[in-house]
Design goal:
Order of helices and strands: HHEEEEEEEEHEHHHEEEH
CATH class of the largest domain: Alpha Beta
Largest sheet: 9 strands, mixed
Radius of gyration: 20 Å
Number of helices: 7
Low-confidence stretches: 1-23
Strand content: 25-35%
Mean pLDDT: 88
Amino acid sequence: MFQRLVLAAAFAAVVPVSVVHAQRPTFSGPAISGYLCCNMRSYGNTVSDVNYDEAAQPLAIGTPVQVTGYEFRWFDANVGGKAQRFKNDYSRDVPMTEFARRYVVTEDPKIKLAGFEPAVREAIVAGRLLPGMTRDQVAMALGWPIASENPRLEAPVWRYWLSAFTEYQVLFDAQGKVRKVSGDSNAVERVWNAP
């Protein structure tokens, strides 16, 4: 056992870092061009499916996107002229090309957005929710809920996080419309436009 550890350490010392990085699992996938499905948040050059709100720069719904490559749990993209890496942190049951198509849509969502009543349009752009919004409108405003905690999109509750310790839930009625938002009071205040 000790000899294996010594050999592993010796090998690591002589193998250039570029070779180690070249061995990361990559795969080819479709070159997707389109638009950002929903409001997302960037942490420098990284976007996560959990879409935490803290200390992040907003990426607006409808921003032009070009997927440039795939790697294990990531896809690389040009988002509005800036390189971003989208990480599949919590939706690992979703295959990577499907994951990319979840966030990069072919039809500009701003066209659909323009057809909504003004209050709904304004709420989506601001990343907020109103009673009566549809699941698609919620996804446009907040991003898709992570698959590990929301395996069925038709479920009556979608779970989201404002930060690692700040959870809130979007509750839908039998018709699939937002009934209310519950959970951490700071998160609810941040996303809910209650009447």
